[in-house]
Amino acid sequence: MTRINRRHILLGGGVTAALGIPFQALAQTRVEIKMRGTSRGERIWFDPIGLAVEPGTTLRFTNRDPGNSHTATAYHPKIFGRTRRIPAFAEPWNSDFLLPNESFEVTLTTPGVYDYYCLPHEMAAMVGRIVVGTPHHAGWEGPSRERDGVSIEVLAALPEVEAILATGSIGLENRS
User: Fold this and answer.
1) Does the pLDDT at position 90 exceed 80?
2) What's the whole-model pTM score?
């Protein structure tokens, strides 16, 4: 039978805790973006619609709309031949259809402005904008100036980059 000295357990736990602190500090940041809809489905949206994050942040898109399936899809030629509305060196993403309470994660590392949409609800302006980093980050790419391939309603729904950077997060309720 092996005896275990309590001091060794406490010492080992203390060392483990001390070593764990730097790992926690280096842990990746995760932010949730909810896919929402009214009970009758007359309104659908991303919440928040505008978000500022640091490079390396993982975004979790979660469908919180009990009546619809949704996607989180980057505007990019590799996905359905769409006009690119994300930084040139960024990887595009498509969540595929998420049923209620399903989630999808993507980590954004390239600084710049990312516009995305819900495939079945883009015409209802279910779109969002993520600002990764600031214009001071090396390689930062501002919002797309391209107007082809997106409707006037979609362009009007996207919050301004300056407003996102000023507040950090924009929901539909605090849009001007």
Assistant:
1) yes
2) 0.83
